[in-house]
Amino acid sequence: MTDAQVARIAAALRSAPPGAGGVRVLGLDGCSGAGKSTLAARLCAALPAPCVNLEDLYGGWDGLAAGVGRLVADVLAPLAAGRNPRVPRYDWTAGVWRDPRPLDVRGGLLVVEGVGAGAQAVAPYLSLLVWLEAPRALRRERALARDGDGYAGHWDAWAEQEATLLAQDDPRARADIVLHTGP
Fold it and tell me: Which fold has domain 3-180?
């Protein structure tokens, strides 16, 4: 992602209407390895804004759909109602839930990144949706380089969950911006 792309997305978020209460919420969605976490880090530094990583909400390798539900129930709905949300945190190494972390959105901006950030259930709370896309082989290479061999045995099952969500919700079709992060 170029500095110009990051600046364009940041400007688009700042000019978008609030999506959850008075907060402008940016959803960064795309399949595993598309570059969501990298873009989120750059945007959160540029805006500045806090980030909710859906990886914290999945609850394990078979929890994509449940993670989307947690995002809505525990973060976005409370935020829209004017309450201070607490973000669930799953410890992937220990396989247990840790105490949720408070989310400070006093700046009025929030970045949500992860597979499912553009799901239908999340859409009413979003101000802007960005879809990241890259070829499957490149995404797999990136994901395994990032997460190591621990992900290799789960790649196919996770990809099936992604395919189910995409077929059901089609966030790419509703994206305000589509970024190609491959060659």
Answer: Rossmann fold (3.40.50)
C-beta separation of 111 from 26 below 8 A: yes
pLDDT in tens, 139-180: 888 888 887 777 777 778 888 999 999 999 999 999 999 999
**Closest by alpha carbon to 87, among 111, 103, 73?**
103
With a cut of 90, say whether residue 34 has pLDDT above it.
no
Q: According to DSSP H, which parts of 56-154 are helical?
A: 64-70, 77-80, 136-147, 149-152
Percent of the chain that is helix, strand, coil (3-state, to 5): 45, 20, 35
What rounded mean pLDDT belongs to the chain? 93
Across the range 45-72, mean pLDDT stands at 95
Distance CA 119, CA 139 (A): 20
Structure tokens at 9: 């997305």
Contact call for residues 107 and 152 (beta carbons, < 8 A)? no
Determine the Cα–Cα distance for residues 183 and 161; give it in Å rounded to an integer.
25
| In contact, 71 and 56? CB cutoff 8 Å | no
pTM of the model: 0.94
DSSP 3: H
Distance CA 52, CA 110 (A): 8
Cβ neighbours, 10 Å, residue 140: 18
